[in-house]
Amino acid sequence: MSDSAGGESGGVAGVGQDADADNEPPQQAPPLLAGDSLEEGSEEGAPTSAKRPRMSEEEQGLEQFAKPVKMLGETPARACLLQEDAAPLAQREPLQCEEEGGKGEEVPVCGGGEEEYHQNGDGGQGAPLEEGETKPEEERNGNRSADSPSEGQHLGLDFTQNPQMLTGSWTEYSNLPENYLKGCKWAPDGSCILTNSADNVLRVYNLPPEVYSYNWDLLPEMSPVLRMAEGDTIYDYCWYPKMNSLDPDSCFLASSSRDNPVHVWDAFYGEVRASFRPYNHLDELTAAHSLCFSPDGTQLYCGFDKTVRVFYTERPGRDCEERPTVVKKQGQCGIISCFGFSPCQSVYACGSYSRCAGLYSCQDGTLLALLPTRHHGGLTHLLFSPDGNYLYTGGRKDPEILCWDLREPDKVVFSLKRNVATNQRIYFDLDASGRYLLSGDTEGVVSIWDTHTAPPDGNEELLQPQLRFQAHWDCTNGVSIHPFMPLLATSSGQRQFPWPGDSDGDSISDGEGGEAVMTPQEIRQDNALTLWWAGPLGPTAEGSQEQSTAAAKA
After folding, report:
1. Do residues 108 and 243 lie in contact, with contact meaning Cβ atoms separated by under 8 Å?
2. Residue 166 neighbours by CB under 8 Å, 6+ apart
3. What predicted TM-score, i.e. pTM, was given to this entire model?
4. Which end of the chain is more exposed for a tag (fewer CB within 10 A), N or C?
């Protein structure tokens, strides 16, 4: 593996192939080398991994979480702000936002990317802030050069034409056979991308600095700046919602893997910062199938069979609050496979493999509503709209995404057609305004829907996509929209199964001397992370167009 920043994980035992596929023992992860280039990218005053004393997981967790995390540039809940465009069915009375933002989701600080994210990268592209110095939010968000695509943060998504591919990462996933990706997620501050893959390694990629200057012809292939290896199949992973590259203490993420506790990883050094250990009724360690931080970051929700366990991030260990989803044989059955938090109400949603979703109170986990079972397969992903009025749900082996009106929880407003023919988790994403919903499918196609074109009467019609483009030649399982720039990240790949004609006893294969026959599945294999530009054209292209127009007039 090439790693220009040298961020190999030093806090876990090793990395191995998916145990479901070959049951091979995990291989030993490369150790973190002293003098690695992490030290070169470190800011003044921030100790490097080699300088930090080694501590147990409990000591690390207690040290990091003993005091509240200090955040820079906190902003009010985005869902409580007025949007320029009204949500579909806007004539109905919207849900009321809470006055206090304790449970409301906060807008990620959009100050990362170019100058703040040094520790785990190849060095910053701007002068670092002096100790104790902070930039006003307007300056952090809008102080870019005139040729920068993020100028003033006013560039919006433009889906009148296909997005333009900028760069990606392919070589990283070709070292092992069938090392397909399992999703990608932008950091809340937009400075980097997190990926999961079949080799049970979480990788962090910094946003290439050339993106800011429209020098897209110079974009090299992306290489991860951190690799964090879990010991077995990774079930779920998520960013800390208040992650801000200006504050290293807030830069962490959580992951859950089979037969392992929930690990909290340091996104600057790639080390395990703390662990949360869930136990079952037999006092055996059990793995969480899904993870999600509360919007304020004080709690970590973990999904299990008919149970949700809530850990407090300031207290690593085994202490947690248990919230059963089935009480007296009534409630939501099945394994809790995904979470989502309302940006306005103190409410969270749980999706389960029993093909239904439930709404719960954040205070005590009381079941508020159980949505009807309309999906054909178990739920794998769900999202709230930014105004909190709608919930989008999608399942495995299910041909559609459903939009629910939470003011009438038994009502489906419209459905979005997509091709999901496997049990793989296929992510979808909403932009910050809640207008555009994007999803990949098992054929590699990304579909983009404009939810504001939905019929106002909500008669459960099938909403046609505004745009569809071929992002990959294999399954596009992950799509993530940048928090404030018109950028998309997509991930692709899936487990390949041999066709019946490739079996050892096949007469055709025997007749050809036992040579492997190239199948369409093998031809279509595509394991990659790809970055796309979904905004207006650069000033260079616009300037040349103006010059040609002026010459034509002359």
Report:
1. yes
2. 208, 211, 216, 219, 487, 531, 532, 533
3. 0.69
4. C
